[in-house]
Amino acid sequence: MNRPHFRGRSLAIFWILIAIVALSAPGTHQAVALTDISGESGQSHAPSMSIARRDTWPKKVDDFLAGEYLQKADVMLEQRWSGDVAAGVIRWATNSFFSHAALVYTAPPYDTGVSNTFVIEAGTKGVGLTKLTDYVHDSHVNFIAIKRLKPASWFDSNRQARVRGLLLDKIKAHYDYWTVWQIARQVWFGVEEKVSSRQKTLESFREKDWIPPNEFICSGLVQIGYVEMMVEAIKNGQISPEALRDVVFTKSAERYLPNRGQWSSLGDQQKETAAIFRQLLNDELFSVTPEDLAQTEKLDWMYLIKGDKVYKISSYVELQKLIH
User: Fold this and answer.
1) What is the b/e burial string over 169-187, where b = at least 16 CB atoms within 10 angstroms of the residue's CB?
2) What average pLDDT does the structure give for the chain?
3) CA–CA dist 254, 185 (Å, integer)
4) pLDDT in tens, 195-205
5) Distance between CA 213 and CA 86 in Å, rounded?
6) Which of 139, 206, 285, 324 has the most CB atoms lying inside 10 A of its own CB?
7) What's 268-304 look like in SS3?
8) How far apart are CA 256 and CA 277, in angstroms?
């Protein structure tokens, strides 16, 4: 391939991506404030809890949302319809079924006074809250998969709440064109990575003084929330530094961590090592893709929402069978 010609064509495609992302990037559902979470009429039309808790699958979406199935900090992966060009580019660039990721923020069974399930996500308007039902009933969404961090004694409701709280701190009050520019670059990062290695792509971004994928990218936001929660707990002496590996969802970043059993050799430097990992691996963590979240064994497959039904799943293979 003629290199100068490729660069010229690449630049043209990049500018096209800016327009595409601005108009149709995932996560463009209107974000809602916490003050808008009460029901419209004050009356609940949700199914009775006894119906919602019946262990029969698949379930109707309303029964599923009325039951205690979702947990705070569950990871949501979404595929939008093939006509969404930006979503299609992201799936192609990352070789994935998924083009968007979000985190379950709150749900009626766990928060008094809340009548809807909300997810926190990054999109063209920054970081915000969106009703899960807006995704479920969106004709442009093909399906939604739910994953959950593998059970661990330290990952209790307080830790779940802290992950979502760290993401909430990143909510943007307004939207500007600089955000569009950043998001377009993140899509382009995936395209570059498609024809190069991740490390070379990161180096290329640094040489151009570009910031690799950051908090405006949905899956990177999810990854950073988990890592920041863990590093904070490690620095406070609440969790062993060895547990940091449990919340790193990409092998390209995990390989920089000491293996299990090796942390003790660091002595008093264990906490500092965890903090340094977060700082130095910023690029790798922010460049986590929806497919990284799908592939990681650190997150268990839980549910698939497709149409008006919810299926219980336990593997990527099961998901693929149900979506075809």
Assistant:
1) ebeeeeeeeebbebbbbbb
2) 76
3) 24
4) 566 666 666 65
5) 16
6) 285
7) HHHHHHHHHHHHHCHHHHHCCCHHHHHHCCCEEEEEE
8) 8
